[in-house]
Amino acid sequence: MPPVYPIYEExxxxxxxxxxxxAVLVDPDKTAPKQVASLVEKAxxxxxxxxxxxxxxxxxxxxxxxxTQLKKTTKIPVILFPGSxxxxxxxxxxxxxLSLISGRNPxxxxxxxxxSAPAVKKSGLEIIPxxxxxxxxxxxTTVSYISHANPLPSNKNEIxxxxxxxxxxxxxxxxxxxxxxxxxxxxxxxxxxxxxEQIDVPLIVGGGITTPQKAIENCQNGADLIVVGNAxxxxxxxxxxxxxxxxxxxxx
Length: 252
Fold this sequence. Notes:
This protein is of the alpha/beta class. The chain has helices at residues 6-17, 36-45, 63-73, 106-123, 142-147, 157-169, 189-196, 212-220, 230-234, 238-249; strands at 21-26, 50-53, 78-80, 94-100, 126-134, 174-178, 203-206, 225-228.
């Protein structure tokens, strides 16, 4: 039986029709299962399209419970955004199988994938190979520290473009530009535009997006899926305004 990729196919369909998407990033270290009901209520009112669950350093032990609660409470798809091979839960809908193509650490290009492959295969999750590109956000981030990899310079669009092109030609199905959690500066609009013009796969952008205006700007420059986590953790009311901005960009 051929594999089924409902979430990836939906992302491709949305890109083809110019429909922008909004995802809320849920960090298990900052979200307890008992907080899920309130989070879901706000997300559904805000018409959030996806939940991404994970983080660069997950020290909590309730990943499975958190995802199970999300799945019981909402029909919003739950996608794993793992920072390590142990962040795999069959309770989710899909998993972004991240290859850190912006760095040169072989462990995060293929090494950890070899370790995690049996568990990932057994999970039954929809696996979406993703080229993960960390961009300098003006402050040291957890992902850079954990990965032992320097971020892409934010003023070197040509490096980002060539990296994204290489990832796509290697068969990666998504490209993810991320300035990192708590970034002072988001991924530059010029970089998003340059990358989006040279790839055909859906483009995800996250990190440092703290206003609806920035979300709209990113969409207008080619982002297909906007991811916000840290800003919403600080101000939950931002969820609705950013979601409305992203979906309005689909009509602009």
